[in-house]
Specification:
Layout (H helix, E strand, L loop, with lengths): L9 H14 L7 E2 L1 H8 L3 H13 L3 E4 L3 E4 L4 H25 L2 H15 L14 H15 L5 H18 L11 H13 L3 H20 L4
Antiparallel strand pairs: 1-3, 2-3
Helix pairs in contact: 1-3, 4-7, 4-9, 5-6, 5-8, 8-9
Length: about 220
């Protein structure tokens, strides 16, 4: 008998489609049709539907009656609301991490920052693009900042907002001349290790507001 090809699981499809959405493989507002998605991810309609439903709950796709699923729309108002909400929740989680994080948290945070600082940020393209390995190190560092927080529900909400923020950030290929991104990350690390929650949350707000300002210039 011919070997039956194993179909992808919901977890695998969710992870792959989420990564594609954040990376900008699908344009904002684009309709997500089942047939090409099933072909692309090697999954059944029911698995793709379940993955899309989870992504809707995470704010990356939208559903409309009798139409189906679309990539989330973007707007200045939504970007501003997302940025402020993300700052509010991450500041709360960062304060908790600074207060409750132990030496293991500090060690992991230093290691994540070391990897980020030693990873080249931009490609040699014209214009330069952010390197994939830098993107991974960047996300790992921001995860490590909050990892000392002992409230799983809060951390779950910050990750959902982070994904939505990444979706916006990757729409923009602009780099702000003179911006010291490495210095911003170093400042976050120093505030965390000094257990200075006020300074840490101030730096976190400035970091996200600068990024939002760059993205804002690319939106209508």
């Amino acid at each position: 008998m011919p070997e039956t090809k194993q179909r992808a699981s919901t977890e695998a499809v969710h992870a792959a489609l989420r990564a594609d959405l954040i990376a900008g493989a699908h344009a904002p507002g684009e309709r997500l049709k089942f047939a090409p998605l099933c072909e692309r991810y090697g999954a059944s309609v029911s698995v793709v539907r379940e993955a899309l439903t989870r992504l809707e709950q995470q704010g990356l796709v939208e559903s409309e009656p009798r139409i189906g699923f679309r990539v989330r729309q973007v707007s200045l108002a939504d970007l501003d609301d997302l940025t402020e909400t993300r700052i509010d929740l991450e500041a709360l989680a960062f304060r908790r991490a600074i207060d409750r994080g132990d030496v293991d948290w500090e060690t992991a945070l230093v290691a994540a920052h070391h990897r980020l600082e030693r990873t080249e940020m931009l490609t040699d393209d014209d214009p330069p693009q952010l390197r994939d390995d830098w993107e991974g190190a960047h996300l790992a560092f921001h995860d490590a900042l909050l990892a000392g927080c002992d409230r799983p529900w809060l951390l779950g909400m910050t990750r959902t907002l982070r994904d939505a923020g990444e979706f916006y950030r990757r729409l923009s290929h602009l780099q702000e001349p003179g911006r010291d991104v490495a210095g911003e990350h170093r400042g976050l690390l120093e505030a965390a290790l000094a257990r200075d929650a006020d300074e840490g949350t101030r730096r976190l707000r400035e970091h996200y507001e600068r990024t939002a300002a760059i993205v804002r210039r690319t939106l209508p």
